[in-house]
Structures are given as structure tokens and as C-alpha cells.
Predict the structure.
Amino acid sequence: MCTPKCSSSVNARVTNMVSGIPMANTPQRADAAGSIYRLAAVAFGHPLAELQQALVDGSFHAAFNEPWHQVTGREWPRCEPSADFAALEAGYIDAFVHGRRGKPRISLLAGEYEHLLGGQTRPVFMLNIQAFYRHFGLHAATKDEGRAEEPDHVIDMLEFMAVLCHLEARALERDADPSPYRRAQRDFLQRYLVPLLNAIHHDLARQKALALDATLIRMLEDLPEWTRQQLAELEARVGPYADASASVSNRPRSVAQNLWN
């Protein structure tokens, strides 16, 4: 089992991490960040037997630790896996699907957290998230592709960040300007992913006798801090986030609007 983390000095640790890690301007580092987002998205999907096997044999840890070490300079701890696939799936369902009175103990949907809506109606909140996706030619999954459309699900947000990191890396490879993709990452982290991960972590800390797999717990503990570090690095590169839509909280951005170029 992993050692629990103390949250009392998280902000100070983020500051130290940002100041202590060289922000390598390379496609390899952007790809590594993308791998972290992508593997986290895999981990938070409904468990498959293949994930249990990867947790048991260490291949998931090896795949996640390599980019984690490349980006943070630190090893990611390996946790004791669930006893078997049934335990992995039961713990996931109890935590994220219907573990308490038919409701998830911890919601992975941003729209389920009232304080994240920022005064918007949930439909408008969802439209604003979808505007990010559509700007880069993406769309949420349809029923025959997996989950029904849930643009505010943490998985969709993590996958979107992986796409932006991929676009940043390819721009760096061809000596093009990566700033549009970095600004998009900064804005999406600030407006959606960092607040959602913080809310999830807050709910996680309130749970007692949670049967969730230790690797998933560790990931929920580490990702909020890491994404705040990523946000700080991006702001150092492309400037601080400015919310131009704060005065129009109930009106979605135009899909056709060029948000980052």
C-alpha cells in the first residue's frame, strides 16, 4: 500500500517543484506530460481485467512512472494492487458509480459540483467545455464508441489535455510556435481540470473505509498538485490566465471564436 500524503504543505511544495524543475522546452517533455494525462484517463475508466493484470504485474506503474519521472524528476510510488479484478471493480463502483444511497461517493463529473458551475446553468457549463473540444476538432464519444456524451467527465478532460500536449510536441518538432496549444492548456486547466481535480480530492479526503484501489487513490492525491504545477509552468511561459468571460457567466463562448491563436 502507498504511504498517505499530507495536504498541509501542498501549495509550498508546488512552488518548490516549479522553481526546482527545469522547464525543458522539448517535444519529449510535452509528450511525457501527455502520457500522464492519457494514462490517468485510462485508470479512471470503468475497470477492465487488463488493468488489474497491469497493476499486478507492474506494467501500469512502469508506463506511468517513466513520464512522471521525466516531468517531475521524482519516482512515482508503486502501490499494492487490489486482491483481484472483482475487488478492483467493486471498489470503483462503490466510489464512482453508486456507492452510497445509489449515488457515487466521489463524482467524476464537474457538473455535479455546484461550486464549479460559477453561476452558470449546467447546460451552459457543458457547452463551454464542448467549445474547447470543438475548437480543436474533437467531439465527445457517442453511444457506440463507449461512454455516452459526458464532456464534463474527468476522463474527457484528461484526454483533451493529452491531445493538447501532443499538438504542442508536434509544433516543437517542426520549430513552429507552440504558444496557442500552451495557452489552451493553461485556460483549460485553470477553468476546468484543476478545479475538478481539487473537488474530487476534497471528496476523497472525506471518505471512510473506501475500498478503491490504492493506485487510483494515489493518483487522485497526486494529480491535483501536479496539474497546479503544470498550470504554473504554463503561466510562466505564456502569461497568466485572464478570464475574459467572467461578466457573461450564462452565455457560452461562440464555437467559431478563435480562442487561443
Summary: The chain has one domain: 24-241. Residues 7-22, 246-259 have pLDDT under 50 and may be disordered. Residues 24-241 form a domain with the TorD-like fold (CATH 1.10.3480.10). The two ends are 45 Å apart (CA to CA).
